[in-house]
Task: structure prediction
Amino acid sequence: MSAPMTHAGPKACGTCKALVRDGKPIEHEQCAARAVLLLPPDQPMYEDLVDLTDEQRKALPARFHTPVFDGLGKPNAWLCQVCWGDGWVSQWPCGPAQEKGAMVFVSEGAAADIATELVRLRARVAELEARPSPATVLRQVADQWAAHCPEHSDAEDVWMDCPEGWVFELRRTADDRAEGGAL
Result:
């Protein structure tokens, strides 16, 4: 027989809520508060884990080593979300979860902080990806300089001597950057 439940869930009936307020156990099992395992907001997806080696998966931060129920296997079991590979799985708690203990479970406040930071980082990545590449900027400058060359352009607004050598160097550097080279 299980211990009497003394915590009512958010959708508990009025009777059970009143009983809990009075320090008594709930009357209906369906009114009991249930623990809910919230995964960290930055939990790697299956597609991200496939490319990792077994050692890399085991070395992931403790908050990723959370249990998942396998209702299809025989016998049913709790397995680690990230400790698995080609033809093998780890029952939960896995080695890293046992080593790290309480660090496996993230508090709701810490999860909210991680989610906020993740949103901020994704926005920063989008901002950086929207910027033109260094190679594009170099080519734009080279084109602007070439457009003002008195010897190689029909521009009326000539404000410098022929920059052909500099334009060539800027375009060469842009090509190097586009191929992954450093400035």
